[in-house]
Design goal:
Beta-lactamase, 2 domains, seven-stranded antiparallel beta sheet, single chain, globular, 432 residues
């Protein structure tokens, strides 16, 4: 894989049936033609060589500009695997370990109390650690829906409303979410990795002792603060110097420079209007904080869109992990550190988001197949996805990498919008 200028090789030489692999194109095109998606870009690689790269639809429904392999996508939670690699870089340098308490780097988060079912407080058995954050077992309470699921008394939610509003975790009559990203300076919200935000988090008791309660994403804002304190530099600089530049990810950043705005699409959201599911504009290019700034408020786990990247750039990152931490002479992580990343860090905990047969590694989910219905993917397949429809998987057994990118939030609201499942199935059925 050579930077963004990727050449597609003969699928037959990579162990694919060419006729079967070509079935991906009409299947993906159908999602666009049926107006289930505005666009989709797909990439398949095997043994480090690209067998399929195709773009379908338009970058913008408003302008009709065509999407391409050079289109920039908001990764949202597909930033989480990048965040895990950043943490493991610091691990290899002896700066931190997965079992280090986050309070070592963010003192505001030491000795957090735990709220019991009756509303009284008790001291937590230990501080939140880095592994808790990477596996989503911080026991932090963050949103309305999670509040209900945790079974906490309503007065708990009301008591800390101002704090939660300040963090942008719940709405209010006086604060308005903008572009699904409430933590804007101009709207009065502190930067997500700031001491102010960490101090606000510290005011909220935990829903349970650290390591016990699954709450998706809540620990990643904390990891951003940990990274900056541990590395002694801001996240944008760290990602650029330690990941993007060594891997030749020339189009990856937390923001979009003016010379690349023409490759940055609007983001859409699926909504039911008058009983009909359809795509509507969620964020325009002109109003996106990725373009307008201020460039002070990026999120390591996907807040405010996380990293912006192309499918070819992210394929380079994915191939590096599949290679055991190295790509074209650039070693980002040691082979055994990648093994550590993909190991079972959530144990036998039941994780609703993943379902039976999967566990959390560090920043990714891994399919192990036990006590689960069989899947077409091999045991050991790992990957993750983003809120606006960027998905990827890697199958070490088959030396296989698959990526499927679009820019639609809540795409599943539209009936039969199973584009990722369709893509993955068609990739596997093409293997000889």
């Amino acid at each position: 894989m050579k930077h963004s200028r990727i050449s597609v090789e003969d699928p037959k030489s990579l162990g694919f049936d060419p006729d079967r692999l070509e079935k991906i194109a009409p299947a993906m095109q159908a999602f666009v033609e049926d107006q289930r998606l505005p666009n989709i870009v797909t990439l398949v690689a095997r043994k480090g060589r690209v067998a399929h790269l195709h773009a379908y639809g338009v970058q913008s429904l408003e302008t009709g500009k065509e999407v391409s392999s050079g289109t920039l996508f908001r990764l949202y939670s597909n930033t989480k695997p990048l965040a895990a690699v950043a943490m493991l870089i610091l691990f290899e340098r002896g700066i931190l370990t997965p079992d280090d308490p986050v309070s070592r780097f963010v003192p505001e988060l030491s000795d957090l109390p735990v709220v019991k079912p009756d509303g009284t407080l008790e001291k937590s058995k230990r501080d939140i650690n880095i592994r808790d954050c990477l596996t989503n077992f911080t026991s932090l309470m963050v949103t309305d829906s999670q509040h209900s699921a945790l079974g906490l008394p309503w007065h708990y939610h009301e008591e800390y409303r101002k704090t939660l509003e300040t963090l942008g975790w719940i709405g209010s009559e006086t604060s308005k979410r903008v572009s699904n990203s409430p933590r804007h300076y101009q709207n009065g919200f502190p930067p997500i990795n700031s001491p102010e935000c960490m101090a606000a988090i510290a005011k909220i008791p935990l829903a349970d002792h650290p390591g016990r309660k699954y709450v998706y994403h809540a620990g990643f804002p904390i990891l951003g603060a940990v990274l900056e304190a541990a590395a002694g530099k801001d996240m944008g600089q760290f990602f650029k110097e330690e990941i993007f530049e060594p891997l030749g990810m020339i189009d990856s950043d937390f923001y979009v420079n003016q010379d690349k705005v023409n490759r940055f699409p609007p983001c859409y959201i699926a909504k039911k209007i008058d009983g009909k599911a359809q795509l509507v504009l969620q964020e325009s290019v002109e109003t996106s904080e990725k373009v307008t700034g201020p460039r002070v408020n990026f999120g390591i786990g996907g807040d405010m869109g996380g990293v912006v990247s192309t499918i070819t750039d992210y394929a380079r990152f994915g191939q590096m992990l599949l290679n055991g931490g190295e790509l074209e002479g650039a070693r980002i992580l040691g082979r055994k550190t990648v093994d550590l990343m993909l190991a079972n860090h959530s144990g036998d905990k039941i994780i609703s988001k993943l379902g039976a047969g999967s566990y959390f590694g560090l920043g990714v989910s891994v399919y192990h197949g036990e006590n689960a219905k069989p899947r077409i993917s091999s045991r050991g397949t790992y990957g993750w996805g983003g809120m606006a429809g960027t998905m990827y998987f890697a199958d070490p057994k088959e030396h296989l990498l698959g990526l499927c990118f679009t820019q639609v939030v809540d795409a599943q609201i539209i009936p039969k919008n199973n584009y990722y499942e369709t893509f993955q199935r068609l990739v596997y059925q093409a293997l000889e």
